[in-house]
Every structure is written in C-alpha cells, then in structure tokens.
Amino acid sequence: MKIKSVKVIVTCPGRNFVTVKIVTDEGVYGVGDATLNGRELAVASYLEDHLAPCLIGRDPQRIEDIWQFFYRGAYWRRGPVTMTAIAAIDTALWDIKAKVAGLPLYQLLGGRSRDGVMVYGHANGADIAETCAEVARYTELGYKAVRAQCGIPGLDSTYGVSGDKMYYEPADGDLPSENTWSTEKYLRHVPELFTKLREQFGADLHLLHDVHHRLTPIEAGRLGKSLEEFHLFWLEDAIPAENQEGFRLFRSHTVTPIAVGEVFNSIWDCKDLIQEQLIDYIRATVVHAGGITHLRRIADFAAMYHVRTGCHGATDLSPVTMGAALHFDTWVPNFGIQEYMRHTEETDAVFPHDYRFSNGYLYAGETPGHGVDIDESLAAKYPYKRAYLPVNRLVDGTMWNW
Q1: Which sequence positions are flagged as catalytic?
Q2: CB-CB contact of 125 with 337 (8 Å)
Q3: Which residues have a Cβ under 8 Å from the Cβ of 194 and sit 6 or more positions away?
Q4: Residues 347, 274 share a domain
C-alpha cells in the first residue's frame, strides 16, 4: 500500500477549518484536522508546499517513521504551525490504519478503559443571573460538568461571554477586535459567581472556570485560594505558560486543581509542569500537539505523575479532532474530562460523524477508523473567510493576554 495523493481542504461552514485527506493506491483514505484558529492558511501552505510532496509513494502504515521524518527531519522543530500540520497527517494515517484493520481507532490504541467519556459544556452570561440560567440549561441537557463564565461589572466585554450561547466562536472579525481587561474587577467578581452557583446547584455538579492566561502567578494563587471552598473541578489557564516556573508560585498558594495546555505543541512545553506535579490536568489536544502519536507520549508521561488528561475541544477544532480525541479518551487510562463545544448544523453536515452525546457523556462510534469523514462537495460551497481572534488591552491601553 502506498500514498497516492494528499488533499488540503479549506472550508468555512460558519468558521474556518483545514482538513487533510490522504488517499492510498488501494482506495483507502484517512482524514485529519489541521485547523489553527486565526492562522489557518499558514498551516494549509505548510502542508501543501512542504509536507504533502514528501508523502507521495510512502507506506501509510509506517506512522511512527513518518512522524519522526517530519519532526526530526525538518530541523526547525515544534511551533503551532509545524505541529498542527504533523498532527493532521498523523491523524489521517491512524484513520487509514484502523480502516485497514477493520477496527474503531480505540481498539488499535489498546481497547476501552471506560464506557463513555465525560464532557463539559460552556455556560456563559452577561451577569451572574444569566450564567446561572445557562448552567441550568446545560444540566437539563444532562451535563455532569459545566464551565461557567460571566460578564464583569465595569467591563464592556469579557472572554467566554457571547450572544451565541451554544456555538461560541471567538474569531469574530476580518481584523482583530479589541477587548478591555481589569484584573482587579475580575478577582472581586468571580467568587461571587461561584457562590451563587453552589447555592443553586449544590455540591455534586462539576464546575470549571477558564481565566485565559490573564493573571500573574501570585494573582492566580489569590484566585485559586478564594475559590477553594467551591471545590472546582479545575481552574484553567490562570497564567501564561511560557515560564513554567511561574506555576511553582501559583501552586504554593492554592489546592484548587490546575489545568493548562491547549496552546502546547509538544511534551517539552509541559515537561516541568508534569514532572514537578505543578498541574493536575494537561489540556494538550490531538490537533495542536502532534497528533495521536505524540499525545500518547504526553499522556503516558503525565500518568507517572498523577496528572490526568483534559483535552481542549472548542469549536475551533473540527469534528475530525473531536472524533479522534474521543477514541483517544476511550483508551487513555489517566483520563480526566473532555471539553465539548457543539458544532453548528452546517459544520456537522460537512463533517459527518458517528460519535454521540448522551446524559453527560460522549461515545466514540464503532465505525472502522475515527468515525469522521468530510463531504468535499459540500465543503466547497463554504469558501474561506478571514477571521481573527480578538486582542486584549488593560483599561489604560496596555496590550495584555487575550
């Protein structure tokens, strides 16, 4: 069996996605997600101009060798563009291998570790009352875990709060929009939100919160300590992760569980965080951390230090990544939780899939492969539309972390 062709498909059924389709000379094909939010065309070009030509004529079943060829062989290693491109190819190759074997992907990885994959949804509101109402809506849908975000008094806009409650998409403009941030206002308000949520929903509902890299380590420690009485499932991305040493100070001031990693590209981004047990959940995902091949290494390393997985799963990842992630989640022994933001009907039509949601859990299908395909003719009806993520400034105009 040899690789005959590699297609890079860019489509925008409500938001931009990049998909790789690898076709063999025996007619078997696999698909992988290569979406990098706000930088989609950079990955598409990297794939078309630099990686795809190297795949033609290769044996698609030599997944490890191909992964090493593109990682070690590039010399310029890592980075979001490179690792997203490698991930797309890797996911497509695993899809092919599972199809050839006639097995759902999780069986190739080692079989089930669990029956279903617990997921969390996103509840947000302009104020505490609206967020509480949204959390109630998610519990009515059967969710056992909900991420809660709300508007901050005195700020016109806040990360995670949108008019569209089910299909939140932050890439909102042909050029970047600008948000305003105040750490002081935020730190005063968030404990009030979780006070109300615990009063209304009791102790059993898993509650999560995302800070989106906006605090310093000592500020994050203050927030984590103030939220301890509400026993959050996790506090996500409280500080930027470029300086892994910052998590030592953060960790020393709170026992609130810490999650990070959706922007990580490789095991080296989280090595010290895991090895020093400075985090509780690693959120690296199939599409941005080098595919299933590399994510398995991260998960196995994390398991040695009692760190569990919590893969990113926002709408900036296509159903291809969600399908692959669910097979990974079904297998991985140190699973924690899976983020699940639902895609629009248009996106689901372009990417038909066999995974399903029921009573707070997602279930990977039994179709050979990862169970997600792409309708190329339908994808062609949705041309690429440039869209940027916002930027963030402090109230005095200083650029800050979005």
Answers
A1: 159, 212
A2: no
A3: 148, 207, 209, 227, 230, 232
A4: yes
Per-residue model confidence as pLDDT tens digits over 273-312: 999 999 999 999 999 999 999 999 999 999 999 999 999 9
Residue 82 sits in which domain range?
Answer: 3-104
Per DSSP (E only), the strands in 143-282 are 145-150, 178-181, 206-210, 234-236, 258-260, 281-282
* 390 inside domain: no
24 with 4: CB under 8 angstroms? yes
Total domains present in the chain: 2
Q: What is the dihedral of CA 161, 165, 171, 172, to 10 degrees?
A: -90
pTM of the predicted structure, to 2 decimals: 0.96
Question: Which CATH number does the domain housing residue 87 bear?
Answer: 3.30.390.10
Would you state the structure tokens that stand for residue 141, as one six-digit string? 């849908």
Given a contact cutoff of 8 angstroms between Cβ atoms, the answer to whether 321 and 91 are in contact is yes
Burial class of residue 58, CB neighbours in 10 A (0-12, 13-18, 19+): middle
Structure tokens of 350? 């372009």
Residue 177's alpha-carbon distances to 11, 117, 164, in angstroms, are 23, 35, 17
